[in-house]
Amino acid sequence: MFINSKQAEEQAVLNLAYSVCAAARTAPKACGIDHLDTVILTGEDKSKVALEMHRLGDNLGNRAKFFARDAGNVDASGAVVLVGVKYQTRGLNEICGLCGFTNCAGCMEAGASCVYTGIDLGIALGSAVSLIAEQHVDNRIMFTIGKAAASLGLMAEYKLIMGIPLSVSGKSPFFDRG
Asked: SS3 sequence, the chain?
């Protein structure tokens, strides 16, 4: 069998993407309640997200021109891992109140997010990118990818989504980004 470097690198990115999903899943969650999910995008699905990033950037005006830059990063990546969390409470009610509401029902009625939603996402992302760093694969956490994924309905039940593009190349596309 003869496997050239391009084939090996593409396979390494895909294998790592699977492991990243596992790392996000097994990351600690507040109250041990899991409202997280992951998705791996490659090929045409990854390209659709990049196109949506361009569209969003154009529609959002001058301050959002970085969407196009990030879309170029997605195009230069071998795969993208989406990590999303649902806006669900933990049922702590009056014990907590960190969301600014009296109880969990007030938080949900206002369409707000339980503070632990963002905390869980942050811990999962940290776990994911630490694994990626250990494997020496270039990456960057991007909210722009998550916004495009949400706009396309890729993780319909998940309100807070972040994307992690993975790249193996001679120079990281996420450095010197302009």
From this structure: CCCCHHHHHHHHHHHHHHHHHHHHHHCCCHHHCCCEEEEEECHHHHHHHHHHHHHHHHHHCHHHCHHHHHHHHHHCCCEEEEEEECCCCCCCHHHCCCCCCCCHHHHHHCCCCCHHHHHHHHHHHHHHHHHHHHCCCEECCEHHHHHHHHHCCCCCCCCEEEEEEEECCCCCCCCCCC
